[in-house]
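Hi everyone,

Forwarding the result from last night's run.
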Amino acid sequence: MKEFAQFRLDTVNQCLWRHVDAGNDERILLTPKGFAVLWHLVEQAGRLVTRDELLDAVWPETRVEPAFLNNQILNIRNALGDRPKSPVFIETLSRRGYRFIAPVRDCVADANLGGDSPSRKLVGRRPALRELRDSLRKTLRNQRQIVFVTGEPGIGKTTLVDEFQRGAAAEVPGIRVVRGQCVEG
C-alpha cells in the first residue's frame, strides 16, 4: 500500500481510500484504468512520466487517443480534489507528461493472518474471518478450497473479504486472489 496526504492507495484491492476522521476511511471510486494511471504515477513519484510511458503502461498494445488519458487525469484530480493550476498531487508538464509531486510513504497492512484482531471497522465477524483464514491455511497445505461469502445486501460481506485479503496479502507474499461478484440483472 502507498500513502500520500490523507489518501491510501490499496494496491491489493485496487481502490483508493481517504482518511476522514476517527479512524474512518471513505472509499473513493475510480475506474480500473483511472486506478492504473494513478498507481503508475504514484509508483514513479517525483519523476516525469511521459504520456507515451503512461499509455504503454496502462494500455499496452492498444491505440489510445491522448484525450482519453487527459480525461483519466481529470477524473483522478477530481477524486483527489487536486487543481491543475495549483497542484498538490499531479503536476502537468506541458507537452511532456505528468509528475506525482506529493510525498509517498509505503505502508504495510496492519492485519495479521494468524491473529485474531481484525481492523476496527469489522464488528462481530471474528468467526467468519477465522473460517476464511482456516480455508487459506488448508489451501497453503495443498488442499483445494472454494469459498462463497453470501448474505443479504449491506451486512458487510465486502468489508469481511477486504479485511481477509489485507491479512492474507500481509502474511503470504505473492499470494494471488480471485474474486467474483454476482449482480442481479
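Helices lie at 32-43, 51-58, 66-80, 126-140, 157-171.

Cheers,
N.
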